[in-house]
């Protein structure tokens, strides 16, 4: 009986919560350091992907030659907003800032100078978003918020260069709690809870037709979504599922009872919901960044189980030997051990073992030993990879003769310049200790901002008849803490627009300006309307241009877009006839109730004369 009680009271990560004992606040609102490392790596990759996707339209979206010259954008920035990207309108300047942001994202991924990298990423992310606010979506808002809260957390405490350079990293407990961990988790669930509270239209409850309407927004539905929407009874069930998941999930995921099971259950439920969005809707990287946010709920018990499996796959006899007088060598060994998942594989001075020490001196090489013997230079690296429980398959390729030759030459080059590399490592890779606890200042700031975002979210609810004071609006815009989760709220959109732009050249030739080709524009409905748009940011801009609720802003959008089209035609056809006049028209398809025929309306948005 005593053994059964002990089993029932066993918990994740050694915490004192069992099935019948409620979890404490530190367990409910804490985050495992290994989960924070995963969050850092995935957020870094997201930022890198975001940069690459934006680079496709560097000139069109971020320079004075594009759709949003700086003078126009600055007229529409909110109080408190800033943008380094507005300092210069050239493509070269924008490219440099994008490159700096990419470097910061890569520093986050490997965990080198992590806090500096996160702060730089946050500043540059706000900056690039404020450079062109008419192409933004909920994805951008959530990404800034996650990066903001990341600044308060020890993201480099595990699986990072910073952790490898912390002499005490192996002794630290994986459980971590601070006001910032509470804030990050509450921020993530606030997105769902307040979105559900804003879904007040009958299409959600009681009708259950919201998913039907969402999947009939042809201008953002994928081919899979077009096929899937034929199952109308399933769409109704999914409507109820999404609504109640968003309303109840954020509460039960913090339940002190059955804490671990409910946390994993609802985390997986939210992730699968976003995978469904990814399959059915062209909404950019919003599902990806949402999944990253949900993975912050991954409990330590998952990592403990994974660590046990990896430990069984590691070579127990593996050991790394370095020159005691070379601190650069020790740092390199610790970094390799970290990124090869080698756990507590011993790293020892070669001088402690006379035979190993002689090998090091005679070959001017580090030594890796295992049950097969002692290995030097590139073969030592290969044995480390072979001993890795994750990267082991790469060891076979590393044994190819050209790679061995190149590896040995590279090692000799490093060994010959060890003194210089030691000086560089002292500056760039100093030994440092990662704080084990958040300081009082960090906790206080995180607490203030947590109250701030909660107040904002409450102010968005129906019936809240108050708005933020101007000073708080300025603070919100400066920090990127905007909260208004209107994802398909109060109901999904009911119209799907797609552009048709026909014009004439100076020689009278009729051209399809939107497709940049000669001949009449095709006005027929495309089979996949979403394919008309080059990407989701162009769709956001053009749908804003068509949106009648944007008056009078949309006339400025249309004017600058038209000017951009004139310039783009001139650049693409420098020696031919130039674009003279054209009209921007949108075919707007209205989503009917189930069983009712569709109606398409033609809206002329703008007439333009490139020489007028």
Commentary on this structure:
- This protein is an alpha+beta fold and about 600 residues long.
- It folds into 4 domains: about 130 residues, no CATH class; about 140 residues, no CATH class; about 100 residues, 3-Layer(aba) Sandwich (Glutaredoxin); about 120 residues, no CATH class.
- It has 26 helices and 9 strands.
- It has a 5-stranded antiparallel sheet with strand order 7-6-5-8-9. Strands 2-1-3-4 form a 4-stranded mixed sheet, with helices on both faces.
- Strand 1, helix 17 and strand 2 form a beta-alpha-beta unit.
- The radius of gyration is 29 Å and the shape is globular.
- It starts with a helix and ends with a strand.
Give short descriptive properties of this protein.
four-stranded mixed sheet, five-stranded antiparallel sheet, 612 residues, disordered N terminus, 26 helices, 4 domains, globular
Structural class, from helix and strand content? alpha+beta
Radius of gyration, CA atoms, in whole angstroms: 29 Å
Averaging pLDDT over every residue, what do you get?
92
In the sheet with the most strands, the strands line up as 7-6-5-8-9
* Tally of individual domains: 4
Helix content: 40-55%
Low-pLDDT segments, ≥5 res: 1-19
Please give the structural blueprint.
Layout: H1 2-8, H2 25-29, H3 33-55, H4 58-62, H5 70-75, H6 91-110, H7 114-131, H8 138-150, H9 161-164, H10 179-198, H11 210-214, H12 223-228, H13 232-252, H14 259-280, H15 286-294, H16 300-313, E1 319-322, H17 327-339, E2 347-349, H18 354-363, E3 367-370, E4 373-376, H19 377-387, H20 394-398, H21 401-416, H22 418-428, H23 440-459, H24 470-479, E5 495-505, E6 510-512, E7 517-518, H25 536-546, H26 553-572, E8 579-590, E9 599-609
Parallel strand pairs: 1-2
Antiparallel strand pairs: 1-3, 3-4, 5-6, 5-8, 6-7, 8-9
